[in-house]
């Protein structure tokens, strides 16, 4: 017996990465899935977008678990498109019990390189897109008198990073939206929460420009960048795997969290609680670097 038996879950950004992992995890626990993704390029990203083939693979993985999966290639920023997806989902499944708004983008740019195009893409995709997906689903959940809404926020909402002004502003907005909606929708037995992941092994972090940034040189390998990733964490890990975030999402989606609402749940290996000073992982890497220089 699954923890989501009989439920229907709609997931944005479902073509790959965390979104695909959430879809598969929810399906394994008995949910039918509505998988949504734009599957198209967005301006100035250093990594390739998800493709229709990626979305089809998510559908295949869900159906291999003997669960139905409706796929929709649609832009979360487009209100009409989101309303159409919701209408189709209701026709197909009769209800939507869980909404996980997971889609997002990440540019790396200091303030002086953050032009209007980068800013507008981040805000419109992460914040405005979250609102428009959610607004399309809320009426159905109000009619049902139940629902669990989950937003993907970021460890950038609990600690400060360089080069992510636009991203952080958008994600902080998502947390503010979550808190307000948790209050406004509580009377309808609709819970609204967020998950704040640390660095997760997905296309957003494993692209070459991001690896070069963390390694400090062009053409670097992931192995060279891992000590820097690890230096952000309290626990001895460099990158989290998508399924670790999915486990938290499953808890928030299930009835096990029926009295949990309005929280921004950190799943970040301790990033948000890193004490001041040089982290041990960074200290060890610096010591090793000094030894190599002396040699």
CATH topology: Rossmann fold
User: What is the number of E strands?
Assistant: 7
Shape: globular
Strand order of the largest sheet: 3-2-1-4-5-6-7
Summarize the main sheet.
7 strands, parallel
Q: Which CATH top level class fits? A: Alpha Beta
Gap between N and C termini, in Å? 60 Å
Report helical residue fraction: 40-55%
**Which spans have pLDDT < 50 for at least 5 consecutive residues?**
none
Beta-strand level of the residues, as a percent range?
A: 5-15%
Number of domains: 1
The name of the CATH superfamily reads: NAD(P)-binding Rossmann-like Domain
Quaternary structure = single chain
Structural class: alpha/beta
Task: Supply the CATH architecture.
Answer: 3-Layer(aba) Sandwich
- Helices and strands, in order, run as EHEHEHEHEHEHHHEH
Counting DSSP H or I runs of 4 or more residues, the number of helices is 9
Describe, in plain words, how this protein is organized in 3D:
This protein is α/β, with parallel strands linked by helices and 295 residues long. It has one domain: NAD(P)-binding Rossmann-like Domain (Rossmann fold, 3-Layer(aba) Sandwich), CATH 3.40.50.720. The protein has nine helices and seven strands. The chain has helices spanning 17-28, 52-63, 79-93, 116-144, 165-185, 208-215, 222-231, 242-253, 280-294; strands at 8-12, 32-37, 69-73, 98-101, 147-152, 190-197, 264-267. A seven-stranded parallel beta sheet has the order 3-2-1-4-5-6-7, with helices on both faces. Strand 4 (98-101), helix 4 and strand 5 (147-152) form a beta-alpha-beta unit. Helix 4 runs parallel beside helix 5 (165-185). The chain is globular.
